């Protein structure tokens, strides 16, 4: 059972901790267990036990395989004469039910270079589950298999595989096309992919092949040259060659990232155990194969059946080893080495391949780039054999690629084998498919690839081309001695890392020239091999150069697609760049979307870590070599050169994936939900509007009538318990109350911002509901102003009015701006406004159109004293001509001086309402206006029971405490103090505190 599942079960089955002493008091009372056993709890507990038992049973139940496996060493005879024995370590997977009465189709599954049969074990299991009898084996020279490595030589590795077909043909449980002819497909990646192509050409019994990330011409792969020269003049790919040689002469690398069978590009299953475990007689599974030292690798002559070998060569055949040593020493190819490599290449035998071929190649592959599969496809198709090509985002440098890519390739492979080997299903399409990275998955943050398809395979030249001009001065670059230091374009097995190298450790100063384009006007989808013409001059007459195409993001790094470069060896060069002849360079095929606004950069470098370069230091001169040659000059006299980069494009149709289908399903579901909500809202609004058509006759001329209003929230909080009041024409009504009394909630309900729990609000006789047309007769400032900061004050007012849909002439902008009093500031951006300026602009917005009912929440907030005084006059004046104003404020003095009426709210209910002077009522204190304030105070201080009260306005306010006001006036006159006026003194604040209490505190308005 998996350890993670065991851990989960332990957590589930762990007994509950005993109650802590502080969990329910110092000594929580214990309940008898019988009292706790109710019928409902017994049923629930039993259900949990049954579910846990089912879970445990499912977890520990042994996995039922749909196949059986058999390990064996099979001896075959190969060599030029077919008489040299070699022992191959094999595992045979036989699907359940296969027998002589029901024979199964077979698949020969080959691993990548440096791997073993274990590298493809998971793929073998997948194919066996699909009903194929699968034979995996470790190729000669690797693992426990004997013999030497000949690089898929037709006389050795290919003949070994042909003898394995003989072994399959002898089994009665394998389907046959004829005696000795098994129904078989061959699947392999990299080294195994080359084997599949060569075997299909050599043994016509093969019914279908699926070669993946493999080569066309092994000589060109390790000695590439991008102007069309022969491999003998190619540039030695020393990085990858060294890895190949090291993995064959030492302990191996586990497959060099070669894909396995069931669409598992780049994967390897060396960490798996099971029937294909490499444990032999030693029985540990962790010991090296016989004759292999765990540190030094292969011990010469110690592998059973192998002849003694040179320590420098390991298990490589002598001719292969000698060819590598010659090339690695000189950095140049030679005819003998090229001939040896081509002997192990499908290039010369493609016309013999009659087995339908599915070619899978990776875009992230500096070892065997996309052009290798392109050449194989063209050669096989020329003989009339069915061919299909599929590119994906992985490869030797990029691994398996995203899961979407893996799923696509698994489907293509299963479809191909099912039709051509199993004989089931319709003939697969010959369409060309490819993919590119589209982004990250929202769930697991892994990469996601989008697949595309087109009916006809266009090749690396693309179905169409787009050209982009690049330019730059001719430049001198230095070739470093012995290639050190060298630029880094790619690291084997890590092609994606190359995009991080630019400006860090990529192109070295003094060793590269740059030529750039203008920003692209439109995005370009590149699918294939770009090309560009360059010129070069060298004092030695020869130059090794590396041409690269960068995608330059103006806001990010420059990206070199998968670290791919075009190595070039030019000979017969002049010493003067003016005499140089343009040479067209074909760059490696890529799949990339270059966005609009990005630039193209052509880089010509003199060194690259992955290739051998001339040992002698020398300085080259490079320039672009397009039509027209030099196109101008730059400061300093250097010639400005230009060329056009040819970009192949393919216009494909996106391929649906389960992730895409699920996204569309989710989008459809969300759209259905949104549509349902729209319908519900429309119905509700229509119903409310239908109610709006009725008018309560008694309220038709009253701006506002609130009846038994109640607002209770879902958590049970009652913001407004019961409120009843009216606002009539010509009135300025103040809504007063301590914090939390329910003022703001009442205004929110009034403006349709929230629905009341109970009660009704009528505006000019219309029942008020959200969206009601009668709201157009109300102007409001509730919960603070909100303006677009990038617009001026005037522009904000105009935008607001346009949103109302009402006539422009009805806005009364002049009156509103006069009220705001912003002057020229109305033309400034509102992000530069102070709080007071924003408040004045909000009041002007509320007054646009001169609404019949104006509702203001703290209108004087942020205003200075002169502006507050002006606001009093504005509100009083506004309430004329049949209009009305409702003001909520905590400034009682302002309400007293501004409002004609007041409504006092406390704890969600009204405690007083009416005219302001009625609420203030009779006062025990009196205000005296006298000729000499100081003399009057001295007189009053001598009177018994009479007390002078403090007054913030500086007046003389007296508490007569029962003494007749006439007696107080007489005393002042006898003392020679003139008395001008005597009025009772009671402020609204006094009445307010008397109504709600001096220490009253609300519960937090909502």
CATH class categorisation of the largest domain: Alpha Beta
- Rounded mean pLDDT is 80
List the strand order in the largest sheet.
1-2-4-3-7-8-11-12
Number of strands: 43
What is the number of independent domains?
Answer: 5
Helix content: 25-40%
From the spread of the alpha carbons, the general shape counts as elongated
Enumerate the spans where pLDDT stays under 50 for 5 or more consecutive residues: 1-37, 251-307, 495-505, 1001-1006
Largest sheet: 8 strands, mixed
Structural class: alpha+beta
Within CATH, the superfamily of the largest domain carries the name Alpha/Beta hydrolase fold, catalytic domain
Strand content: 25-35%
The value of Rg in angstroms is 45 Å
CATH architecture type of the largest domain = 3-Layer(aba) Sandwich
Distance between the termini: 56 Å
Determine the number of helices (DSSP H or I, runs of at least 4 residues). 23
Look up the CATH topology of the largest domain.
Answer: Rossmann fold
List the helices and strands and how they pair.
Layout: H1 3-13, H2 33-36, H3 39-60, E1 67-78, E2 84-95, E3 106-110, H4 121-129, E4 133-137, H5 157-169, E5 176-178, E6 181-182, E7 184-189, H6 191-202, E8 206-212, H7 218-222, H8 238-249, E9 292-293, E10 297-298, H9 318-330, H10 335-343, E11 357-362, H11 370-381, E12 387-392, H12 403-422, E13 432-440, E14 447-454, E15 464-473, E16 475-479, E17 512-517, E18 524-528, E19 531-537, E20 542-552, E21 558-560, E22 566-571, E23 583-586, E24 590-594, E25 599-605, E26 618-624, E27 630-633, E28 639-649, E29 653-654, H13 658-692, E30 704-712, E31 718-727, E32 732-736, H14 743-750, E33 758-763, E34 766-767, E35 778-781, H15 793-804, H16 813-820, H17 835-847, E36 853-857, H18 865-878, E37 884-888, H19 892-898, E38 901-906, E39 909-915, H20 916-920, E40 925-930, H21 933-942, E41 947-949, E42 956-959, H22 965-974, E43 979-985, H23 988-996
Helix pairs in contact: 5-6, 9-10, 16-17
